[in-house]
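REVIEWER CHECKLIST
Item 1: Sequence provided? yes
Item 2: Single chain? yes
Item 3: Sequence as submitted:
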Amino acid sequence: MIGISTELLEAWIRKNNVSLAMIYDRRGKIVWHIGRNVVGNSIYTGDGFCKSYALLSLEKFELFEKRKDEILVQGGKVYESALSNPVKAVMIRPINHQYLLYLDRTRKMTFSDFELYTIRSIMFLLNGMMARQVELEFDLADFAGKSDRVKLVRSLIKKYAPENEPVLVTGETGVGKNLVARLIHQASGRKGNLEVAHMPTIPEYLFESEIFGYKKGAFTDARSEKKGLVAEASEGTILLDEISEIPYHFQAKLLRFIETRSYRILGEAKEHTANVRVIAATNRNLEQAVARGQFREDLYYRLSSFEINIPPLRYRDQDIRHIVQKNKHLLKGKKIDPSTWSAMSEYHWPGNVRQLLSVVKRAGILLPGPINCQDIVALVKSGETNSIPHNAIVAAGRLLIRIKNGESFWTAIKEPFLSREIKREEVKWVINKTIAEYGPKYCDIIAPLNIPPHEYKKFLNFLKMHRIMDNNP
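Item 4: Structure as written out by the authors:
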């Protein structure tokens, strides 16, 4: 289940001698429970609860929903089917038009008036939460594909989202780790933002100040106070992207924050706390990094409480067609010849979904259509020779740091580009990285790039004029 609502319900249950709490939908599927063991995942075939009353609630659901009524049986007046538990009091109430809440007791004979009032207050919160659960099914469709491996990823997102424990998202470059992190955050119901810390772009000496912030005068260039990403993500989630790149000396402080939610701002003695969920992503094998002494073993085990491994595209080629169709707007209305799908499936896609979508974007811009097998093969080969080298990524990462430290796009990117201090590929990397984090449209990235809204057209003209724009604004 999702968010603060079930945390309140669980706390109330532990305090008030409720033996079993259960949420199920009007089809009888049990989606959550806590307390006494429940057998099965359906009201119709399961056991461990007062089945007669649960079945009655499904039969009379529309009546209960309309009247805002509840099934309330107290004083040990339970059906014979429940006596083996033994249950002394039962309450069932609709949460909304889709879900019901079941509570029972084996110690006390009644629910007091105050307890019923408290339950109804919690259910008001549950109603909003369960509505979000329905929306989540649509959000998860963003992680496109119909293979069993993709279905498993979507299932794990739903299971892990409501927890407070860290999640480790692993997989090759381009498989969609950031997308999975965003979906986990959206599904969690957390009120705060999702903040992304891209580890390779943060200089080693700035890690602590970037993550935890600093006070004015904390070091030579600290001319003003700066909030860290943890504070920016308060009540939300922080994504530690490419966690394998985190300096070893900072790993102990990160572990302490994960375990205690406590941290110190650089230059300040007192401790702060932050309710922040941690998601880590990496394309490297952290177990090997632990064996080499490059990554703390205790931090690895703490981060990998819940792990989601995203398989590369070459192992789920049946998803390619579905991914392209999900992003067909990139083709700008152009049709794809049926023979093209086999060519796409046979290619090994080293850049995974990111590479696939890049090819689709270029096909939409460069090809007249209908797009055939030879067209796609040619685009794939041209893309293989145009990949950005590692040193250019490092240089581009430094540009992104300048932006995140408050410089405008015009001074950090445009001026050095026009004076030929930086290359086009580095500017493209910054733009595409920002789109991946804040996009999908160019209008979504002007704020992160510190561009005023009234200069949006100027920004687009710069991208077009210097052939930096390679996707649909």
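Item 5: Key structural point noted by reviewer: The chain has 19 helices and 14 strands.
Item 6: Recommendation: ____
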